Dipicolinate synthase subunit A
Amino acid sequence: MGFKYTILGGDKRSLELGKLLMKDGRDVCIYGFDMLEEYNNETVSLNEAIEYADVIVGPLPFSTDNLNVNAPFSNKAISIDMVLDFMSEKQMIIGGKFNIEHEKKLKNKNIKSSDYFKREEMQVLNAIPTAEGAIQIAMEKTPVTIHNSNVIVLGYGRIGRVLSKMLYGIGANVHVSARKYSDLAWIKNYGYISVHTKDLKTYLPKMNVVFNTIPQMILNKELLKSIDSNCLIIDLASKPGGVDFEAAREMEIKAISALGLPGKAAPVTAAMVIKDTIYNIIEELDV
Amino acid sequence: MGFKYTILGGDKRSLELGKLLMKDGRDVCIYGFDMLEEYNNETVSLNEAIEYADVIVGPLPFSTDNLNVNAPFSNKAISIDMVLDFMSEKQMIIGGKFNIEHEKKLKNKNIKSSDYFKREEMQVLNAIPTAEGAIQIAMEKTPVTIHNSNVIVLGYGRIGRVLSKMLYGIGANVHVSARKYSDLAWIKNYGYISVHTKDLKTYLPKMNVVFNTIPQMILNKELLKSIDSNCLIIDLASKPGGVDFEAAREMEIKAISALGLPGKAAPVTAAMVIKDTIYNIIEELDV
Amino acid sequence: MGFKYTILGGDKRSLELGKLLMKDGRDVCIYGFDMLEEYNNETVSLNEAIEYADVIVGPLPFSTDNLNVNAPFSNKAISIDMVLDFMSEKQMIIGGKFNIEHEKKLKNKNIKSSDYFKREEMQVLNAIPTAEGAIQIAMEKTPVTIHNSNVIVLGYGRIGRVLSKMLYGIGANVHVSARKYSDLAWIKNYGYISVHTKDLKTYLPKMNVVFNTIPQMILNKELLKSIDSNCLIIDLASKPGGVDFEAAREMEIKAISALGLPGKAAPVTAAMVIKDTIYNIIEELDV
Amino acid sequence: MGFKYTILGGDKRSLELGKLLMKDGRDVCIYGFDMLEEYNNETVSLNEAIEYADVIVGPLPFSTDNLNVNAPFSNKAISIDMVLDFMSEKQMIIGGKFNIEHEKKLKNKNIKSSDYFKREEMQVLNAIPTAEGAIQIAMEKTPVTIHNSNVIVLGYGRIGRVLSKMLYGIGANVHVSARKYSDLAWIKNYGYISVHTKDLKTYLPKMNVVFNTIPQMILNKELLKSIDSNCLIIDLASKPGGVDFEAAREMEIKAISALGLPGKAAPVTAAMVIKDTIYNIIEELDV
């Protein structure tokens, strides 16, 4: 495991990742942060940066234009094709959200690669800073404590599970809605009040905070009507989300779309999650 | 939902189920308990018992000989073929563990049926009396409290999840072993100590109780050697289980195979689980 | 319990209290908020406001100058002597932090009175918004999640108990320090890591957040030296608090004095706490 | 702390205590177990046994007849006066439940002594095996799981607190009754349903298990009438306890008096509790 790493582009989370790897005693080369004072006299070339490492760590997402590595803190473009050209078959590249074309090229060049964003454990671990970020928003935007409040989590997937556990731990009256009876059984088992999705209308009126995790329209005009005007809605589902925000505005219900919480609320934890996932990837390859 | 029910055979759990249905205000006919004093002057015939109900509720397992309904408290054989002959297309039959032949017959006769044992929510809910039964055994067979003991749960499926949560709630130092990194992430998220299966040997020596939920040989001679002689092993996996009992006996390690715990440790709860599942089945059919 | 109430002065928390009493169906007169638009055409006189009610509810603190009732949203001075003169023996006055002189006057006039701030249950309930406010600050000011962080709570009084429970519920590695062995036993019993005060030096270096609840100098220069520069200190003890802030600033350790959290982080909850306490006071008097 | 210990009399818990001290690497002399095969060729005299140690550890209770040390596994009487005569001022004696006369003699002889039973932390730690023993009984004697059952704990002292926490951790619907509003506030804070003692009659009818911890008559004939015939009552309060057992028998309500649970349900844990308390005593004396 005495691997050398090159952090290739990315935002501050990538930088934190580099620091965490160093703290673990790994050799790390940072490339693509020349806009930051700390790194602006980088003299190492892309070729050297690539050659340095056993493992090249790309950002999340790996690219935003499909041509260059996503590197918001670099004045230089980092061409994906060049990166691959510089790599040898002994090296591996790990990044987040490779697209199909990238993966095809990697395969053609016979370069070992892995997409950390596709890893189930990364999704699980990422749910933690997401949930905690959502709780922070609820604390900031309501005049009541979460303890003893009526809160409901819509959906019992990864984020729903982590979020409901934390809310329960703080002392809220936690409701969780789901459609599947087995999910409802799990919800009850963990001590929360289970709500079948079809019964939402009955439960919504007394809620202080509604957290949505379902990535499709769920809080439509109809359901919004049953929500109290003092209630806060926090939508954690990726765009377009699960809330009719326009209708909410008209009804003067506070509704917030909260995305990218891990990077915003807890960038160091977000970097740790990637680091742990990278270690798992490497360990599995070794075996 | 004003359905009438006939409880057709089964053990005391089926009888409890009948009582619970009555408590809920349902009309219930009990058939196949003539060996019990309370029911020994049953004058109703099988045909009448079948005709009486909208829903026929069979036992778990439905049959042990594939010919007759499983009815340990009846002196009369209850022929499955006769039951099906007496039924009409308006009725439905719900039982546990139908075999393929039964299901074929039901289909041929166009009779609505459902196997409650195949329902995911029943499996989840059944994990609760299983886990609690296992904890009771641990309390009875060890001279230490579970609180502050080192315990490990092997496997993080349904029973593993429910059991580790309860042990944690009592205050044990809960370890849970799994192979998948995503399971390990969940284990950590719930506050337990996660142990990769390959590292069991390191953790086993300091355990006070080992609960196995994995239905294949896991505690083999090799691993048993690392277990303390005061440790108690409780195997919850169905036969042949996951423990080399012979080797355990030779090493004088106490190992218990604990099966059928719901019916033994909490028959009324076990009946409730079936009742709730039946209600879910009926509700889904209605929709 | 069909009592009439007069809210006499106070800040927005008192106003929320009035609204909560009305929500419960009580008759409420609001006096002393003429600076707020909503109430600026109050035509009722002090005498009328006093006469109106069975229970006069004063603010927390009752007075800041010992002459007038504390009424930051009123242009008129509300003389305590006049209030008492207008009151009859059938009425009662409830306020927070009466001083000795007030209590003497109340006794002389034979007026029933009670200080809600002295009530143990109010102190307990107030610990909840305090703890939650502290957690909100920790979430805002650290780049890591509380989940899986190393946190320590200094002191195991009311706030310490509520705070450690919530931190544990979120998934932190909760340490709590105390001096008494019985407190240390309780700390262990609740699943936290117990730290004897004399061993703080050993535990502080690995902490991400330190919450102090002890109202005397505890984090002195000597102990601050053992704290990591990335650690956040939140001091919840009333002035002068338990942290050498000057030394912390010199060492570039972030230290925050967080006071009055209930009113700031959750004013509606803070009002509920007072309301519940008032109800308890009234119920006890009736008996 | 390199002290030598003599275990002087007592039951199997004292013997376990001796073994635990040895496991910790202490030198230990066992005296007063000659009825057990393992120790029946003890050749050491009482004088030698006393001289051997820095700390003499007596049983709990120290004496049952006020003349001799309580030693149910010894054929020889161990005179308290002789023990004290053999001791010097350099030694100390630690026991449980010294009576006033013993303490007077110890003082006269200038012998350091301490009563571990009087230590608050011992009472707290002892509440754990008591609570767990009570839960074991509830599991054994009811046909339902504790999970999802309605249970009530009468009294919120040490045992009440530990017991309600464990029941909650298993997933029961935990009710706790108390008289003081501050206790009721704590009960709510921990997530349990708080019941004022005067409202017991309203809550008792739907309970599956009632745990009493109050050492005075509480479940009298009147209240027993409101209890369901399937309900189980477990009385943990010392004799005469808090239940009218005669009335319960007449009404055919199952009521169990469960005393001495630590020694019965978890003798090794009970010994650990004494050991930890002894260490605390010694550490405090050193300082």
